[in-house]
Design brief:
Number of strands: 0
Structural class: mainly alpha
Shape: globular
Length: 193
């Protein structure tokens, strides 16, 4: 979840910088945030913060011998950033099916998508961020569209997310079943005595 949160925060902040919020500092800020994100992925730094959190929640810390390499963390982060961008684009296109949105607001929609996702993960009082994502979406969209449309999209986007997650879960289950069948076929047979 930590890599997901980092990826969501990165996509949310960088996309927001591409709106009028970033202004003339959008490019330098994006470069700075990218460099900081890469530095944080260094195992010594990354696990330092992870272990602080683990101590806070009274869980065993991760030993240095169990650290994942920078290369693996970097590629994992890249895949999550790509996933967050795809999630943002899917919600943008879904919103465009409901109403027109000015092109200069596209980065804002992508930013809100990533932000609602990480807010849902961090919301400890609700299961799956139920209500948290919707509240953020409604608050953001009522300034871009009509209030009824913002409300409809808010709930439709939750159903959209559930559908996407269900499809991905089913693909994962089928993949796991096929992997286990394939592994049994190629497993060496035990010699009999």
């Amino acid at each position: 979840a930590v890599i997901e949160i980092f990826a969501g925060a990165y996509v949310s902040i960088v996309a927001l910088l591409q709106t009028s919020v970033g202004g003339k500092f959008a490019l330098p800020s994006t470069i700075l945030i990218t460099l900081l994100g890469i530095i944080i992925l260094h195992p010594e730094i990354f696990y330092f913060f992870i272990n602080i959190y683990l101590k806070f929640v009274k869980q065993p810390i991760i030993k240095k011998s169990d650290y994942v390499s920078f290369k693996k963390l970097f590629f994992l982060q890249l895949s999550y950033v790509g996933g967050m961008l795809m999630l943002g684009l899917s919600h943008l296109f879904f919103l465009l099916a409901f109403t027109s949105v000015p092109a200069d607001k596209y980065p804002f929609i992508i930013s809100i998508t990533a932000f609602t996702y990480i807010a849902g993960i961090l919301a400890l009082v609700t299961q799956g961020g139920l209500g948290v994502r919707e509240g953020i979406w409604y608050g953001a969209l009522r300034r871009l569209t009509t209030k009824p449309l913002a409300l409809i999209f808010t709930f439709a986007s939750r159903i959209w997310s559930i559908a996407i997650e269900t499809i991905l879960m089913l693909i994962s289950i089928v993949t796991l079943i096929l992997y286990k069948k394939h592994k049994k076929k190629i497993a060496p047979s035990e010699p009999t005595a």
